[in-house]
Specification:
By secondary structure, the chain is α+β, with helices and mostly antiparallel strands. The chain contains one helix and five strands; from the N terminus they run βββββα. Strands 1-2-3-4-5 form a five-stranded antiparallel beta sheet, with no helix packed on it.
Amino acid sequence: MLGEIHLINSSEVLGMAYRKRVFLNPISLSAPSFIQAVADSSDEGTYLLGSYILIIADCDRRIMLEFDLKSPRQRKASLAKIDRLLKVVNEFRDAVHAEAALIEKAR
């Protein structure tokens, strides 16, 4: 359906613990905005060299965040990094919703 949010979920790919790409804008806007997450399987904890990547893209801009799990220190840092990111994104979402409601109320 035109303008629908599109989701590509391919966690079933061999060797992947998690893989997902979600387009954030409706396709009708013609503005390629997406978030993509890739987490390799650690093969029950035996494989330490996997890729754990989060990509956020909006139009022509992209950022790629990597989360290294190779050592205890890197795992601790990566877990703290994703937790902080999620905290800020959730707080930002709340602020945007609150401001949107204020704008609607003022109209």
